[in-house]
Design brief:
With 142 residues, the chain is mainly α. 65% of the residues lie in helices and 0% in strands.
Length: 142
Amino acid sequence: MANIHVQNWRDERGTDLEKAQAFVNDRNNKLTKVSEKLGIPVRTLKEYRAHPEKLRVASWERVATLAHLYDANYIMDNMTAEDTKGFMNYLNDMLKEMAGKMSEEDTPVIAKMKHIIMTDPLAVVELFNAYRDQLDDSDNWF
């Protein structure tokens, strides 16, 4: 069987390993707080910070958890809670409008698109960034 790789927009943000390494290396992330939250010993986190390549042999669960924290920081750095609420409403309205313009057989596709987008915080923040970048004036929000 051939090994097929479909290009995924998430690849642009790096692999989970790269994101975990970036999270640990970010001095804004206090290792004592990360340790308390995740149960990873501070000494281990310090080792990861000093030698990021050691994350290559860490458990997948640990790498994935650190990568998720990296993504969470990215989301919080790009959207406020108010932005999230307003933009989710904007997306919901946009998808409803799209569904209204489509034929009946396309409605399940729109419904699935809505489900995928609205349940994926990274997709929402990327769409929000695209929306924000196209605006000339931040007073034009939603």
